[in-house]
Write a structure and sequence with these properties.
There is one protein chain. By secondary structure, this protein is of the alpha+beta class. The chain contains one helix and three strands; from the N terminus they run E-H-E-E. The protein has a three-stranded antiparallel sheet with strand order 1-2-3, with no helix packed on it. Strand 2 and strand 3 form a beta hairpin. The longest helix is centred in the middle third of the chain and has 10 residues. The protein is globular, with a radius of gyration of 13 Å.
Amino acid sequence: MERVNCNFCGCGDARVKYRVKAEKYHPAYLEAASIVGPEPPGEFTVVCCERCGLRYLNPRYDATEL
């Protein structure tokens, strides 16, 4: 996992909008994800850029994990 700045404007300031626990995903998805890639984190964090308002995952999978 890697921490990133906003993909749209490059700003490094973001606030957490919400967190989604991985167990809320369909079990078949979690099973397939663990076969083809890294094990999903316990939760995914969606943040909102303070400058432009873009919402994105942070941290996110890095290039080697994808």
